[in-house]
Amino acid sequence: MGKIYPINIVALHKEPHVDDAGAYLLAKEHGGKIFPGIETAKIEFLGERFNNGDELLKTGTLCLGIGRGRFDDHAPENKGETASSLMAMFLGIENEKGVKNFLRYTHNVDSRANGDSFDLANMLKVYWQAYANMPLSPEERREKEMMVFDWAAAAIIAKLENPEMPKGFHVKKLLKQCQQEAEKEKLDITPSDYIDIEKYVEQIDKGQRIRPWGLAVLAEIITQKTGDQQWFYDAVLVKIRDRIYYRYQLGEFDRKAKIFQITAPNGQQIRIATLNDDGAYHNKIFRNENGGKCDILIQKTSAGNVQIYTNSRSKNKLPIKTVIAIIRSVELEKKKIDSRRFPMPYLEKYGEIDEIPIWFYSERGEMLLNGSLTADKPATTLTLEQLLQIVKFAFEPDRLPKECWRSKKCSEPSCILSVLRMEFCSNLRRFASQNNPRRDKQPTPTGRKPQHLNPRPEEIKTPPTKEQPR
Question: Is the pTM for the entire model greater than 0.90?
Answer without folding.
Answer: no
